[in-house]
């Protein structure tokens, strides 16, 4: 008996809850979330490529594009687990890194951004309804090197934590 594996040919839908939820990769390709998938839509040829993390996540919560390194990142809210960031090459749709941390209690990532030189990835992590962290990673090593705890009542007050890079 042959086992048949289904593969999505077209994906319809749009997730509006995520931050940075639509990005241009080049002049003809845009990226947007649909459920737990990241869709790369080529508007010139009317074709789609689908990137799925392959996990049991609930939805994509944030997205970012790094044109210099030709990668994209998306954060996924996983069921009863820590939130995860996936970094993919958008030319080949292959996974570069899976980024997560368990030491700091963040329930989801609400925003992602790459630095202008492409080395760093910043994420805003939601701790509770009005409490946030800002995380800084060297994304190609999936290494958290710094994070900030943000006081929601006074954004001038913040606690800065540096993580030892040599651990």
From TrEMBL:
Alphabetical list of SUPFAM superfamilies matching this protein: DPP6 N-terminal domain-like (SSF82171)
Source taxonomy: Eukaryota, Metazoa, Spiralia, Lophotrochozoa, Annelida
Gene3D superfamilies, alphabetized: YVTN repeat-like/Quinoprotein amine dehydrogenase (2.130.10.10)
Residue stretches spanning the membrane: none
Gene: 20203491
Protein source organism: Helobdella robusta (Californian leech)
Domain of life according to the entry: Eukaryota
InterPro entries for the chain: CFA-57, WD40/YVTN_repeat-like_dom_sf
Name of the protein described by the UniProt record: Cilia- and flagella-associated protein 43
